[in-house]
Amino acid sequence: MAFFDNIKTPYLFLDVSNENNTDELRRLYTNRRLNFPTITIGDKKLRNPNGTDLNKWITKSITTPQQYQN
After folding, report:
1. How confident is the model at residue 66 (pLDDT cuts 50, 70, 90)?
2. Which of 21, 67, 23 is CA-nearest to residue 42?
3. In angstroms, rounded to a whole number, what is the distance separating the alpha carbons of residues 23 and 34?
4. Domain range holding 18?
5. Residue 69 lies inside a defined structural domain of this protein
6. Residues with Cβ within 8 Å of residue 65, at least 6 apart in sequence
7. What is the pTM (predicted TM-score) of this model?
């Protein structure tokens, strides 16, 4: 969360100790595992990403909204 605070980017934090949030996280993965931390940017799911990956996908979401390419 500090990453997003530092770059002044809004985010929504879902605490997995809340059952509703747990269910939402499980729906992201076909195996229904609780893979966290998971960050979603558009349709892209990032599991435990580093700052480089976060910057990459944030930049892509700004330059090409809703079109994510690997």
Report:
1. low
2. 67
3. 9
4. 2-63
5. no
6. 42
7. 0.71
